[in-house]
Structure formats: structure tokens, C-alpha cells
Write a structure and sequence with these properties.
Helices cover about 30% and strands about 30% of the residues. The chain has helices at about 25-30, 45-60, 70-80, 120-130, 155-165, 210-220, 235, 270-280, and strands at about 5, 10-15, 30-40, 40-45, 85-95, 110-120, 135-140, 170-175, 180-185, 185-190, 195-200, 225-230, 240-245, 250-255, 260, 285.
């Protein structure tokens, strides 16, 4: 079965899917995106992801490519055509194709929209959950609008590559005063010695993860206390558990930071009980 992508109104073979050479996403990273998980034939937290897409578009004064109902139809169609029942879809919108110029293109230039989908192997995620991952910390070097989910991800790409070359799987950005910001593609949480779940406020400085928001609902259901406050590297290293949240990984335990073990160096029980409850609580939209 060949993969199918959606590009500006057409379903095309993935291998032939392309945008214009002067697309502003390609030339200026002038675009936004969303990644959403699909589990057992259900799209997870679609409404929250599409709400965030609307926010990203409006923060950048970018036109929406189509209305919510049409977009939902196309997303489902891409998932169906790719027979995804466990996997993700990736959606990207740019300010369109126009002769290269930093100024916004002429009013009415149609935005570019692409949607791709792929299946993922639940066994790969299960291995990550069982073993946990190793991370490195790096100085924050991103712009101050990381609350917008733009495709300008070069610092994130470099951070992940540096982690890989250091024998780790991911990286966490730390600001100048030692405060933990977020992972290169996820939000960071700690479980304190008192059993409190702590994550930094998401009003600025980080992307407000959809998984992070839903996890707050999950914690309520489990009777866990969530505290939104800043914490530093020292506190993170002394935590009982540290984990990442993201749509693709849900809740991934971190067992080593800069070559130092977190607690006993094994995944903890809080992150695993959160994972067990997550899909019951999250919004599910049938494909
Ligand atoms: N922070 C960054 C920088 C990300 O790239 C992502 C996801 O891609 C997240 C946090 C987690 O967001 P979500 O839970 O919506 O996937």
C-alpha cells in the first residue's frame, strides 16, 4: 500500500507530494504545525490540537486554510487512506507560495496546507516506557515565542542531534538562571519527594503542550496534586521521577540526566499510572 499525503486540496502519493520552491515554509520557516496521536482508531485530543492551531495561526496573522469541519474531514480521510489505526498525523500550514520577499505576500495569497500520516509500532513505545530514556541538558537558545508551534525548529534539531551524539535520546533546555524550560519536543514534569506533580507554567517560555493540559485532567482523576511552578536543574535531579509529555510519547520516563541517574535509575510508578489512565480521560474522535 502506498502512503498518501494531502497537499493543497489533493490527495497525492506521498513519494510525489511536494510544495512550491518559493513556499514560505521552505524559505522562511513561515509556517505552523500540529502533531496528533491516533490510538486504536481514535484521534486523541483533536479539539485541543485544532484550537492550538487556530491560536498559532492568529498569533502569526496567518490565514486558516479551511474551516474546522472541512479540516477534520480531510484529516480523517488522510488517516483512512493510509489505514492508520495506531500512529500520528502531521499537519502543516504556511503563509503560502510567493516570490521571495520578507514582507508578507499579497493579501489573498492562499496558505499552503499539507497533511501526512504514518503508522507507528506500539512495541517501540512500550520499550521506551519500560526502559526510560537518557537526556542531556543544554542552554536555552530559542526565540521568545516558542509558545507558537512554528516549524522553525533548528535549535530543537541541533539539541536532539547533540543528545544523540552524547549517547542520550533527548535534550532539555535550561535558561540562564538554571530554570528548566522544556524538552526539545516535549514538556518536562517532576514528581517531588512529597509526591506532588510539578510542571512549569506555560504562559510563556515553553509550548503549552496538549498532552500537558490533558495530563492535568488525568492527575485530577487519579487524585494527584499538580503544582504549576518553576523548578531548577538541582530539584529535577533530586526528584523521585522525571518525565516528558508529548502527543507522540504521551508520558515518557527519564531515567538519566547528564549521566546522573534519576532516583534509582528506573522508570517510576506515577508516570506509568498516568499512562494507564490517559486514554480514558483524553478526547477521542473516531476516524
Ligand atoms: N514542547 C515542544 C517544544 C514540542 O515540540 C512539543 C511537541 O511537539 C511539546 C512541548 C509537547 O506538546 P504536545 O503535548 O502538544 O505534543
Amino acid at each position: 500500500m502506498s502512503r498518501i499525503a494531502y497537499v493543497n486540496g489533493q490527495y497525492v502519493r506521498h513519494s510525489e507530494a511536494a510544495v512550491h520552491v518559493e513556499d514560505r515554509g521552505f524559505q522562511f520557516a513561515d509556517g505552523v504545525y500540529e502533531v496528533c496521536e491516533v490510538r486504536h482508531g481514535m484521534i486523541v485530543d483533536l479539539t485541543r490540537h485544532l484550537n492550538r492551531l487556530d491560536r498559532s495561526l492568529s498569533e502569526l496573522r496567518m490565514a486558516a486554510p479551511m474551516g474546522r469541519a472541512a479540516l477534520t474531514f480531510v484529516i480523517r480521510e488522510v488517516l483512512r487512506r493510509n489505514r492508520v489505526s495506531n500512529g500520528i498525523f502531521y499537519l502543516q500550514v504556511t503563509r503560502g507560495a510567493a516570490r521571495r520577499d520578507h514582507f508578507f505576500p499579497a493579501e489573498g495569497t492562499p496558505p499552503t496546507i499539507t497533511i501526512t500520516a504514518k503508522s507507528t509500532d506500539p512495541a517501540v513505545a512500550a520499550k521506551k516506557y519500560a526502559n526510560g530514556i537518557k537526556v542531556i541538558t543544554l542552554p536555552e537558545n530559542r526565540w521568545d515565542r516558542v509558545d507558537i508551534k512554528t516549524v522553525g525548529l533548528l535549535p530543537n534539531v541541533l539539541a536532539k542531534q547533540q543528545a544523540k551524539e552524547a549517547g542520550a535520546q533527548d535534550a532539555i533546555f535550561i535558561d540562564r538562571s538554571g530554570i528548566v524550560m522544556e524538552g526539545a519536543s516535549s514538556n518536562v514534569w517532576i514528581v517531588t519527594r512529597d509526591g506532588e506533580l510539578v510542571t512549569r507554567p506555560a504562559e510563556h517560555g515553553i509550548l503549552k503542550g496538549i498532552t500537558r493540559t490533558t495530563l492535568i485532567d488525568v492527575a485530577k482523576k487519579l487524585g494527584l496534586t499538580v503544582v504549576e511552578r518553576e523548578f531548577g536543574t538541582e530539584e529535577m535531579l533530586a526528584a523521585r521521577e522525571v518525565f516528558f509529555t508529548s502527543a507522540t510519547g504521551i508520558c515518557v520516563p527519564i531515567v538519566e540526566i547528564d549521566n546522573k541517574p534519576v532516583a534509582n535509575g528506573h522508570p517510576g510508578t506515577v508516570s506509568s499510572s498516568i499512562r494507564d489512565t490517559f486514554f480514558d480521560v483524553a478526547e477521542k474522535t473516531a476516524i
